[in-house]
């Protein structure tokens, strides 16, 4: 074709560098908000009867769990002068080796298990699903919430592990 020009290689490389810088700045600004969301979660989880344990000593920084547990006394702040004492219903434990982004992703994942009724409780009907179905649902919750907050987590890679060769997800 006569009207096409050859792309100047240095110009294309310069554009790629600029695009990469823009993406990195965006990721950095979103990741800086993680502290805000973690603080907000730590303050609000007790209001829903959830104790957060960040001192979970395990071998992997990716390890986390949620369990039925009424052993922790919690103090929920009503206002600056008043607190209410009560016991928790659940405990979310996240590896102390995880960085703040990983902690947030894991909390969201474990909340996904709770909100999708993967934990047997007396106040809702049990849902009987395979481990793969439960993990896929919980990680989908984590991915959607983090994406909505503008925070990059490796959820999409984790979710892709569950997609079979035909493109089907656990059902």
Describe the structure.
This protein has 171 residues and is α+β, with helices and mostly antiparallel strands. 44% of the residues lie in helices and 18% in strands. The strands form 2 sheets. Strands 1-5-2 form a 3-stranded mixed beta sheet, with helices on one face. It has a two-stranded antiparallel sheet with strand order 3-4. The longest helix is centred in the N-terminal third of the chain and has 24 residues, at 9-32.
Short summary:
With 171 residues, this protein is an alpha+beta fold.
Summarize the helices and strands and which ones pair or pack:
Elements: H1 9-32, H2 34-44, E1 50-56, E2 64-68, E3 73-79, E4 82-87, E5 90-95, H3 100-115, H4 131-149, H5 155-160
Parallel strand pairs: 1-5
Antiparallel strand pairs: 2-5, 3-4
Helix pairs in contact: 2-3, 3-4
Features of the shown structure:
44% helix; 5 helices; alpha+beta; single chain; 171 residues; two-stranded antiparallel sheet; three-stranded mixed β-sheet; 5 strands
Distance between the termini: 50 Å
What's the story with the biggest beta sheet? Answer: 3 strands, mixed
Looking at the structure, what is the overall shape?
globular
User: Low-confidence stretches at least 5 residues in length (pLDDT < 50)?
Assistant: none
Calculate Rg over CA atoms. 21 Å
Secondary-structure element series: HHEEEEEHHH
Q: Would you report the number of β strands?
A: 5
- Overall pLDDT confidence: 79
Q: What class do helices, strands and sheet pairing give? A: alpha+beta
- Count the helices. How many? 5
Helix content: 40-55%
The largest beta-sheet arranges its strands as 1-5-2
